[in-house]
Amino acid sequence: MKGKLKEERGAVFVLTMVMVVLASGLLAAMFENMQADTRNSTRKMRRIFALSCSESGVAHAAAVLRSYRANFMTPPAYGSITINGVRVNWSIENAEDGDGNPILVTTTGSDGFRFISKLYKIKAVASYEGIIGRSEAYISLDAMPIFQFVIFYDYDLEVLPGPTMHLVGRVHTNGDLFTGCGGNLWYDDATIRAVGKAWRDRKDKPGHVSGGGVKINGTPWPPTHDSDWTGHYEGEEMDFAEYALARWDGALKTGAHGVSRIEPPEIGSIQPYVPNPNGDGDYTYNPSTGKYVYTPGTGDYDKSYYHENADVVIIDNKLYVEGVLIDPPPSGVIVEKTFFDGREEKYVKTTDIDIEKLKDTSVTVNGHTRTLWPQNGLIYAYRTDAKVTQPNGIRLVNGKELGGKLTVVTPDPLFIWGDFNTVNKKGAAVICDAINLLSNAWDDSKRNNTLPTASNTTYNVAIMSGPAYETEEGRYNGGFENFPRFHERWSGRTAKIRGSFIGTWYSQVAKGKWICGSDNYTPPKRNWNFDPDLLDPDFMPPFTPQAYEVRTIAWWRTGKLPYSIFVNE
After folding, report:
1. Is 463:425 a contact under the CB 8 Å cutoff?
2. Angle at 449 between CA 463 and CA 514, to 5 degrees
3. CA 382, CA 510: separation in Å to the nearest integer?
4. Is cis: bond before 391, omega within 30 of 0?
5. CB 472 within 8 A of CB 506
6. Start-to-end C-alpha separation, the chain
7. Angle (CA) 543 372 410, round 5°
8. Distance CA 502, CA 151 (A)
9. How many CA atoms lie within 13 A of 116 on its CB side?
10. How far apart are CA 5 and CA 254, in angstroms?
């Protein structure tokens, strides 16, 4: 009996030991699995983190692309950024079609706004604790050139001409629209948008309705039928928002229809110098002389964007080409003149730039011979003596035929004398404190209390400028019809303009009060249309301000995680 008991105890012991061994093995296996799971989980988290960093690198490169293109600079081909302590390398390249050509598409967005889109391929690589994360994307850079409106105003828009006026093209104001006419005002082929309200009366005289007629695409706009209107139209009771849709089929919309603000594109300062907040600029201002002194790396100012990038710079009567002073300038290229400005009630001095001589005159600079015409199409010009009390300026003369596409930028009042860009028309723009138009008949003979007679004149140019001040009750700024300022007796004569009018600031130098008649001016027949050639990327004036957006067309990521692709996310 005892022997049998011993045998049973031994069997139990052996079984127990087997169970212990099995349990130990199981625990070891479980522990190993737990460690493996931990290792896998850690590696997976590293992979996710590396991929997230690479995706952020793609987003950063897209932002770099947008910033560079918005400033008319060629984007870098590659770069790097540190994200959460991880270095991410990125690259940007043109996406190409099957023939190796960059992919460029012109599209029309909401409300007919034209976008010029170029496709890029962006890659980014991040390495985190031995794990590599790669992300790639096709990015569409969508540019909305500002010169695609006949009128774009960043403030209230007033169109209240006396004589009959034809206005063709898209109109947008980020404020209210006030409109009327002493004769007839026709908005043709029009898409009119006002972020605020639309009024058939005057801002300076609330409740006053001009006696003439207004039509939108051929359909009259009755007096008093504006944003406060409620009544019946075609038997239906409507408010103005409903009425406008029914009457003009969407051609006129306001904030009541959900029209939203369009942010104007970034526009570099038109001043010659801009503050450097870090104190490591290249210029120091001398208040005793009113001039900026070259002190590289220690100054409080830098050249402004347009000043820095212009191939031809004209300061007073000095001519710089590729940064080199041409002294003296070739005969007749730049000349100082004086004449009476009735709007400012002063004799003003102008630096006249002879466009014809500019394109036909050659010089030797930096070891090579070239014409004076700006190689990149940008001229920056200003006078150091231009100020509110003495609004001297810049004048373009003999400009019937340009030597190439052209943009002229000045912080001063700008005058255009005679037919401009009418022979072999090219993309042209002016960006200035105030724009003044002189006819072919002008001869500088104007004096105080005289008013010379104008002649029919044509200007093919896009204009970015502004009125002298904001209209207030009892104080009119002249309205859009006097956005270009006149100085002659234009009665019965036509000022024909093909271009675009962009108002995003008020004049800082030429601030004279608007007065019709006297020795200021009498109004012309205004035949002002949008120039559809401005929608052609190959025609667009150099350095045209543009609003940029980036869209992700497709993106994907690679690494040790499964390959995946995402479209339009």
Report:
1. no
2. 35
3. 14
4. no
5. no
6. 83
7. 45
8. 6
9. 18
10. 103
Q: What is the DSSP-derived secondary structure letter of residue 72?
A: T
Total residue length of the chain:
569
Question: Encoding tokens for residue 58?
Answer: 């793609």
Scored b (16 or more CB within 10 A) or e, 46-68 reads bbebbbbbbbbbbbbbbebbbeb
How far, in Å, CA of 262 to CA of 197, rounded?
15
SS3 of residue 378 by DSSP:
strand
Rounded Cα distance between 440 and 528, Å, is: 18
Bridging pattern class, strands 157-159 and 177-179? parallel
pLDDT digit of tens for each residue in the chain (569 aa)?
555 555 555 555 555 555 555 555 555 555 555 555 555 667 778 888 888 888 899 999 998 988 787 766 778 999 999 988 889 999 999 988 888 888 888 777 666 667 788 899 999 999 888 888 899 999 888 888 889 999 999 999 999 999 999 999 999 999 999 999 999 999 999 999 999 999 999 999 988 888 899 999 999 999 989 999 999 988 899 999 999 999 999 999 999 999 988 888 778 789 999 998 888 899 999 988 888 999 999 999 999 999 999 999 999 989 999 999 999 999 999 999 999 999 999 999 999 999 999 999 999 999 899 999 999 999 999 999 999 999 999 999 999 999 999 999 999 999 999 999 999 999 999 999 999 999 999 999 999 999 999 999 999 999 999 999 999 998 999 999 999 999 999 999 999 999 999 999 999 999 999 999 888 999 999 999 999 999 887 899 999 888 777 888 887 766 544 333 333 33
Is there a contact between 90 and 59 (Cβ–Cβ < 8 Å)?
A: no
Place of tokens 């190409």: 96
Identity of the amino acid at 97: D
Distance of CA 132 to the CA centre of its chain: 39
Give the integer Cα–Cα distance in Å for 313 and 228. 51
Q: Which two tokens stand for residue 425?
A: 């028309």
Partnered with residue 252 across adjacent β-strands are: 192
Reduce the secondary structure of 386-404 to three states and give it as a string. Answer: CECCECCEEEEECCCCCCC
User: Strands 393-397 and 413-417: what pairing?
Assistant: parallel
pTM over 0.90: no
- Contacting residues for 165 by C-beta, under 8 A, at least 6 apart: 159, 181, 183, 184, 185, 186, 481, 525, 526, 528
**CA 229 centroid distance within chain:** 35
Token pair belonging to 1: 């009996």
Q: Which residue, 454, 450, 428, 430, is CA-closest to 440?
A: 454
Largest distance between two CA atoms of the chain:
145
Residue 100: other Cβ atoms inside 10 A: 7
